[in-house]
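Homework-ish question, so no full write-ups if that breaks the rules, but can someone show me the predicted structure for this set?
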Amino acid sequence: MPRPVPPTDVLLNLHGAPHQTDLVTSALRLATALLDRGARVQIWVCGDATRLTGAALGDTTPRDLSDPGREHPSVARVIRDLITDHPDRLYWYVCRFCADQRGAAEQIPEVRKRSLFVYAEHVRAAGKTLFMGVC
Amino acid sequence: MTDHLLIETGGPQTGPACERFVGDAVRLAGDGHRVVLFLVENGVTAALPGASPAVETLLRDGGELWVDTFSAAQRALPAADLLPACRMVEMDEVAAELLEPRVRAVWH
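A: Not a homework solution, just the prediction itself:
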C-alpha cells in the first residue's frame, strides 16, 4: 500500500542535468525562500538530478588542492541539512526508476524513492507545480 | 483575470525560445492580465538595453520586469546597466509571489 503524499504548497520538479546550468542553485534558493515564508514544499527529481542525493557523494566534496585545509559540503549534505532543518515541511522525492538506471539506487536516508507511477498523486497533493528544468 | 509569474532562465543568447517565451508574456499582458517576468540565471541578460525587443514591448504594455539580484551580481551586471524600468529582487519576493493563490507560474 503506497504511503499518502503529505499536502504541500508547492511542488518543484527538477528533471534536468543538475550541473549543466545554475538550475540546482536556483532550486535550492527558491526552496529555502519558500520554507522561510513558512510554506510546505516537496521536490521531485528525475533523470540525472537523482544523483544529487546519492549516498556515494558523502558529506564533503573532493579536497580543493589550492586550499587543502578547508572542507566544502557535498550537494547531498546541503540537501540533507535542508531537509532535517525543516521536518514535516520539506520532502525530497527521488524517481526510483531514474536513480536505478543511473546506478544511484543508494540514496541518503532523508530522501524517499518513489515510483513514477505515483507522480500524479504528488501533483494532486501540491497547491502549485513548477517544472524547473527538462533534459 | 489571472496573475502570471513567468520565469526566464536562458536569455536571448540561447536562441529564439527566450523571445517566444517573453512574447507569451506580452500577449498575456495585452489581454489585461497582470504579468511579472522574472529574469534569473543567464536570463538576466534579457534586461540589458536592446537585448530583447519583446522585453521592451512587455514594459510598454504594462508588464513588470523583475531581475534576480544574485544572478545579476554573479554576471557582473550592475542595476545601472540594465533597463531602468526593471526591479532588482531577491528570491524571497519571488517566493511570496509564487505563494499567492491567484498567481500562475511558469519556469522556462
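Now go work out the reasoning yourself. Hint: Chain B has a mean pLDDT of 96.
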